[in-house]
From TrEMBL:
It comes from Rhodococcus sacchari. This is LLM class flavin-dependent oxidoreductase.
């Protein structure tokens, strides 16, 4: 492909409560109780809107994480938080993650549709299946359901939810007879102001990608290199075409962990300082969990053994295949020792791509990936809020605009509209700014 691509990048911010750094909550820049303050969430929403980002994004956890490896053990319900932020903002999209394993489709369809009305058509649902035993225990199960079954339920869940949202517009009776859900009835709810709430999917296994290709408007992906990102991008887009959809109907936004500074050195110092406030065992516990291999049994000063990098996946592994693949791919390419890798994650990411440098360098990277056809945009994950988001608003976005990679103002008033407006030659009158 040539080095010109029409349209502009899509940008979300994955809030992760206080930022992606595991010890963000300990930062002197924050008050560790901010997450229960409505004012904190309003501030984030307004700031993201000042940056004219397409969406704010919240992950979802149904249990308190293990503080040994869970960066953000404290989370509140994303849909409730975004309902609050909806009142403090006017244009920014509001993407809330929710599990198909531990929700009911009728209840969730109506909760997201309610957020859609409260926000004037800015709601989106990010579909996940939940992968941990602690969450399962909170719902009275002895362990998490196997991935295959979780995804079978997720596919039906997505299908039914879309049918319910469509029925809200058409008034049709919904008849759905699957192996997980049986529904026959009228979904009496007012039609979505944006046609249908936006549907995202996060999960990089073949089953996850299949749901994305069939039903999703967007994918929150985990990608480390532009080459593999491009390959996965092609897979999802061509699978979408196989389901009779246009490639542009499903947008792909990898996560990108960010530490920015006015010089590269300053950015590196910042990330080192932030990581040094984390317990030293954090990275090893995180990696054990993420790839399903007991990292404490590996030789720290040796490269990762071949059976870890290329061996068959343990059938009992219920974690994310998408994250696992992107981590192992990076290790295969760079061949670090275990110790080097654990240290390097602070510069290169941990399943998601990582970036440490200046706003100018970040814009180079965004441009490179976008023009290479590796993504449609990014879900940015600043190290620490709120200042990490301020730098995006004040420095990164103006640079992107100067290069013609980002719009100067919102062109539409709904999340679906923002997504469509990113494509060249779209019918922009569909969702005019009112
Ligand atoms: C980028 C990305 C983000 C994810 N975010 C969440 C999340 O917020 N909450 C959650 O329960 N699972 C999350 N997951 C997990 C998956 O959605 C899914 O539930 C499961 O672990 C299988 O993932 P896989 O398709 O990559 O194997 C995420 C996965 C990926 C790749």
């Amino acid at each position: 492909m040539g080095n010109r691509r029409e349209g502009h990048v899509l940008l979300g911010v994955n809030v992760l409560v206080y930022g992606y750094i595991p010890s963000a909550w300990r930062s002197p820049r924050l008050d560790s109780r901010d997450f229960v303050e409505p004012a904190y969430w309003e501030r984030i929403g307004r700031l993201a809107e000042r940056a004219t980002l397409d969406a704010v994004f919240l992950a979802d956890a149904l249990s308190l994480g293990d503080p040994a490896y869970d960066a953000n053990p404290i989370r509140l319900d994303p849909t409730v938080l975004w309902a609050h932020v909806a009142r403090a903002t006017e244009r920014i999209g509001l993407l809330a993650t929710a599990s198909t394993t531990f929700n009911d489709p009728v209840e969730l369809a109506s909760r997201i549709l309610t957020l859609d009305h409260i926000s004037g058509g800015r709601a989106g649902w990010n579909l996940v299946t939940t992968r941990d035993n602690r969450s399962a225990a909170n719902f009275g199960l002895s362990g998490i359901v196997a991935r295959t079954e979780r995804y079978e339920r997720a596919a039906e869940f997505a299908d039914l939810t879309r049918k319910l949202w469509t029925a809200a517009e058409t008034g049709e009776t919904v008849r759905f007879h699957g192996s997980h859900f049986d529904y026959e009835g009228d979904f009496r709810a007012p039609a979505s102001p944006q046609g249908r709430p936006v549907l995202f999917q996060a999960g990089g296994s073949p089953a996850g990608r299949d749901i994305a290709a069939r039903y999703a408007d967007g994918v929150f992906a985990a990608e480390i290199t532009p080459e593999t990102a491009r390959e996965h991008y092609g897979l999802v887009k061509s699978a979408a075409a196989g389901y009779g959809r246009r490639p542009g109907d499903v947008k792909i936004l990898p996560g990108l962990l960010l530490t920015l500074g006015s010089t590269e050195e300053e950015a590196r110092r910042r990330v080192d300082e932030l990581y040094d406030t984390s317990p030293s065992a954090y990275s090893a516990a995180w990696l054990t969990h993420a790839i399903g291999v007991d990292v404490s049994k590996l030789e720290l000063d040796e490269p990762f053994p071949d059976e870890v990098l290329n061996g068959p996946i343990d059938e009992t592994f219920q974690g994310s295949i998408g994250f696992r693949e992107s981590i192992l791919e990076q290790i295969r390419q760079t061949r670090p020792t275990v110790r080097e890798y654990l240290r390097r994650t602070r510069y290169s990411g941990s399943g998601h791509g990582g970036f440490v440098g200046t706003p100018e360098q970040l814009v180079d990277r965004i441009e490179q990936w976008y023009l290479a056809g590796a993504c449609d945009g990014f879900n940015l994950q600043p190290d620490i809020l709120v200042d990490g988001l301020e730098v995006i608003a004040d420095e990164v976005i103006p640079l992107l605009r100067a290069r013609g990679l980002y719009r100067h103002e919102y062109e539409t008033s709904t999340l679906r509209g923002h997504f469509r407006a990113a494509e060249p030659n779209v019918e922009k009158t569909l969702h005019p700014v009112g």
